[in-house]
Design a protein that fits this description.
alpha/beta; 12 helices; UDP-N-acetylmuramoyl-L-alanine:D-glutamate ligase; five-stranded mixed beta sheet
């Protein structure tokens, strides 16, 4: 097997986040349960955007957020995702490449670039309303065989498993990665993703196609149809490396019979929890590709997650590499 020239290649939604403050009254008027995540159509996206307060536009998408964090830490990364040939698409490509992530997937015409309207409550909880747009149309022929084979880890974003074209693209990428002897990681991303695709995710696991699984405790429980603790034990029997975040309880990783738990990293003030899981994955994966032990990988993940929830947006603003060095030495 040839040496990998990339640490992580990720396939995911190319989404521009529009983030604005909100309150309980606004959410109630709009029929939006606090903390919910839902898909919306273009009409609803325009209507809700017009009602939102002043916002910030920040390039997002779960897998791309993870890559941005990895690049900040010093990892070699690349992204496969679909944007449109429009203004938001150009902004998205610039933001990601400026962060140090290789992004060569050609733009397409037709559907607009995806966007996520994020309403942030005073307690930092986010209510997410997503128009997937062009990202739903990533074709299988957008997968570059050599690029996939060059990455030590292929990371798949659970959000993108729903539409048929991206699902076919990810299945093709899995085949390429496995033939090249590379690892495949799956991030379940959200409870509704697991509800919708539990069967498919379980099939991938049962067929031995997933080497690393990232989930939170609720997602793990849904996937296994049991409580979170039993789910972790069950998943660890079938996936070589399982990483589960547990909010204020911290996180746990299980690999080859070894189980390690950590507490969350202290945060002075939670501003916006958008991207916490994405950046946790950044830190963990960075430690993993460096060959660090489970505890250090978890600690780096917690440091990255703590940084991102201390400000608006799902991309790091501080020097994560310096933070990790400061806290871990």
């Amino acid at each position: 097997m040839t040496a990998a020239s990339l640490d992580v290649l990720a396939i995911g939604n190319a989404i521009v986040d529009v983030i604005a403050d909100t309150d309980a009254a606004f959410l109630e008027r709009e029929g939006l349960p606090a903390g919910s995540m839902r898909l919306i159509d273009a009409t609803r996206a325009v209507e809700l955007y017009e009602k939102m307060g002043p916002g910030r536009e920040i390039s997002g998408g779960a897998a791309a957020n993870t890559l941005a964090g990895l690049a900040t830490l010093g990892a070699r990364t690349a992204f496969v995702g679909q944007v449109a040939d429009d203004q938001l698409g150009a902004i998205y490509r610039h933001d990601l490449t400026a962060a140090g992530v290789q992004f060569d997937t050609p733009a397409r015409e037709g559907e607009p670039t995806g966007r996520c309207l994020i309403l942030v409550s005073p307690d930092g909880q986010r209510t997410m309303n997503t128009l997937l747009g062009a990202s739903h149309y990533l074709p299988a022929d957008a997968i570059d065989d050599e690029l996939v084979a060059s990455a030590s880890i292929l990371l798949l974003e659970g959000y993108l498993w729903d539409p048929p074209e991206p699902r076919a693209a990810m299945r093709r990428a899995i085949d390429i990665a496995r033939k090249a002897g590379r690892k495949v990681a799956l991030a379940t991303c959200a409870d509704f993703c697991v509800h919708m695709h539990r069967g498919d995710f379980r099939t991938l696991i049962n067929e031995g196609l997933i080497d690393m699984l990232f989930a939170n405790d609720e997602e793990a429980a849904i996937l296994e149809g049991t409580d979170a603790e039993a789910a972790i034990e069950s998943l660890a029997r079938d996936v070589p490396l399982v990483v589960v975040t547990r909010g204020e309880k911290g996180a746990v990783a299980v690999q080859g019979g070894e189980r390690v738990e950590i507490k969350p990293e202290p945060v002075d003030r939670v501003v916006d929890t958008t991207g916490a899981g994405d950046l946790f994955a950044s830190g963990f994966l960075y430690g993993h590709v460096q060959g660090r032990g489970l505890e250090e990988c978890l600690r780096i993940g917690a440091i990255a997650a703590a940084e991102v929830i201390s400000h608006y947006g799902a991309r790091p603003e501080a020097d994560l590499k310096a933070l990790v060095k400061q806290k871990l030495g």
